[in-house]
Design goal:
The chain is mostly helical and 143 residues long. 56% of the residues lie in helices and 7% in strands. The relative contact order is 0.17.
């Protein structure tokens, strides 16, 4: 039986999230730029519901897509962490969708769902618990 990887530390998860936010910002800027070009250079009016849905969909596809394809976003890959089901198997589309929605709640609750990891006995955040997932540290380095 294979050894279970230890949970990823708060620092690793935070660092991976910062990395992912930079990549995601670039993707959103690029797609927004393409939309402005398609509108002959006209700005997209602030608060346009269709644009807000477009951006939200891109964010969801970014995270859910990467989690489904190997369990790692670019930031998670850089920091050697991976999302997986509690039993160590690959995550499902359902688990990823629940995880994404619950992560929004975790952050919207003034970050309480994220900070929960600091007191959780298994090192899991709200969205980990609600989706039946965990984030494992894949590569240990001697320290």
């Amino acid at each position: 039986m294979a050894a279970v990887a230890p949970p990823a530390s708060f620092f690793r998860r935070l660092a991976a999230s910062c990395y992912d936010l930079l990549v995601l910002a670039g993707v959103l800027m690029l797609t927004s730029f393409v939309l402005v070009i398609a509108r002959d250079g006209a700005a997209i009016p602030a608060g346009t519901p269709a644009f807000q849905v477009f951006v939200a969909a891109q964010v969801a596809v970014f995270f859910i897509g990467f989690w489904l394809r190997g369990g790692q976003t670019p930031g998670m890959r850089a920091w050697h962490i991976q999302v997986e089901r509690i039993d160590g198997t690959s995550v499902t589309l359902r688990a990823c969708a629940i995880r994404f929605a619950a992560a929004l709640i975790s952050v919207a609750a003034l970050g309480l769902g994220v900070a929960w990891m600091l007191v959780d006995p298994d090192g899991r955040m709200w969205h980990d618990r609600l989706s039946g997932t965990r984030v494992a540290w894949l590569k240990q380095h001697p320290e």
